Amino acid sequence: MTETLTAPAPAGGRRKAIVREVAHPTPNGVMLRLDVPDRVNHVPGQHYVIRLTAEDGYVAQRSYSVASAPSDPLIELYIEQLEDGEVSGFLAEVVQPGDELEVQGPIGGWFIWRGNTPALGIAGGSGVVPLVAMLRHAIHVGRSDLLRLAVSGRTKAELPYADELSAAGALVVLTREDIPDGRKRGRLAAAELEPLIQPESTCYVCGSNSFAEAASGLLVAQGVPTGMIRIERFGPSG
What we know:
By secondary structure, the protein is α/β, with parallel strands linked by helices. Helices cover 18% and strands 32% of the residues. The termini are far apart. A hairpin with a 2-residue loop joins strand 1 and strand 2.
């Protein structure tokens, strides 16, 4: 069934997910692929909550954006490990395939893209994760023409999904080293974003507070109405 533009975003309850895959694609990140029984299919841009409960009853939980497309049989999450992060540290250092995790999702109805309208995604660092879900969904439904991406990272090694994004034609900017294609290091510039903005595009900005402010400012300077800009900020909450 084709979802309409105004259909409510799906929402799922708590589940016991089985960890099927664990990988460490970046120096400070872990990728988990989870089998979520009877899951509600997500829309790209939504997230899941992982809830950890200690033997003494102490509970800690954090939200993580989904990187997988809705068509993927597993839910893929990328977790940036933060210094002294009680949840991210456990997920990065302790969790193994076969482990069980308590999850809740999908969650969120604002920062979502269904794959049937023009969109521009701009992200910094681990903020690329929901854009990866959008990219994978666009490829699956054959509408890559609708989605344009611009991402920024410190170095290529630290940028999650850097190779996948580059291969799909995303504009990739690095702030601490030159780009492998010969471009010099630097920050996203208005001149680079201008040709990526399509008429009637919804612009999705995801990153730290400072990145979100800078990127949304560039869009407004290019004449994008503020009502067409959706921002998802993140900060340290390990």
